[in-house]
Amino acid sequence: MREVTLHELKALAKAAYWDLWNGARSLDRDVKLYIHWTAARYNQTFDEYHVNITGDGRVFVSTNDLAEVKNATYRRNTGSIAITLCCAYDATGPDNLGPYPPTEVQINAVSQVICVLADALDLTIDIDRVMTHAEAADNEDGLNTHEDYGPNSTCERWDLWVLRSGEEPGTGGNQLRGNANWYRAYGNLQIYNVL
């Protein structure tokens, strides 16, 4: 696991550009960014994700090749990047995100990471290309790559269905995409490891 700046992350994405796009095109779709949580503590990182964001907003990569296929998002890993927030240990539902809920600095950092990766990979920041694991689990992009297993069905995975306890269910992805689009429009990337 290696800490990176947003500038370094963008360079890694550019280096993986064609491999990611070729993998996605082999499945007749665009490159995807999937946003997860680890269901662990703020400083626990995992190799199953390309990018880990700790509770204090620091960004780590588990590989130098963002086109490496990781086993993070069921039947959706080829031609995608898995990003995770290190949080949500003991979360039990949208009204109880446990003692390690997503921090505001993590929400800010992941929004900037989405923006940087989308810019490097020529992606529109919308639900067809940037999804939470909760949204992907329920095939909310219409790809239907598997049986639904998210919050609108069996609820096996509900990562970032909400960002804060008590929020309206299903709003997490829209908030993250909205934040990332704001950063794209205003170019104000200001987390600890600025661009």
Note down, in words, how this protein is organized.
With 195 residues, this protein is an alpha/beta fold. The protein is 29% helix and 12% strand. It is built from five helices and six strands; from the N terminus they run E-H-H-E-E-E-E-H-E-H-H. It has helices spanning 6-15, 17-25, 104-120, 133-137, 172-186; strands spanning 2-3, 32-37, 51-53, 59-61, 80-85, 130-132. The chain has a six-stranded mixed sheet. Helix 3 (104-120) crosses helix 5 (172-186). The longest helix is centred in the middle third of the chain and has 17 residues, at 104-120. It is globular.
Instruction: Write the element-wise H/E pattern from the N-terminal end onward.
Output: EHHEEEEHEHH
Average residue pLDDT: 92
The strand count comes to 6
Radius of gyration: 15 Å
For the largest sheet, list the strands in their spatial order. 1-4-3-5-2-6
Largest sheet: 6 strands, mixed
Tell me, what's the shape?
globular
Strand fraction equals 5-15%
Question: How far from one another are the termini?
Answer: 20 Å
What is the topology?
Layout: E1 2-3, H1 6-15, H2 17-25, E2 32-37, E3 51-53, E4 59-61, E5 80-85, H3 104-120, E6 130-132, H4 133-137, H5 172-186
Parallel strand pairs: 2-5, 2-6, 3-5
Antiparallel strand pairs: 1-4, 3-4
Helix pairs in contact: 1-3, 3-5
What is shown here, in short?
The protein has helices at 6-15, 17-25, 104-120, 133-137, 172-186; strands at 2-3, 32-37, 51-53, 59-61, 80-85, 130-132. With 195 residues, it is α/β, with parallel strands linked by helices.
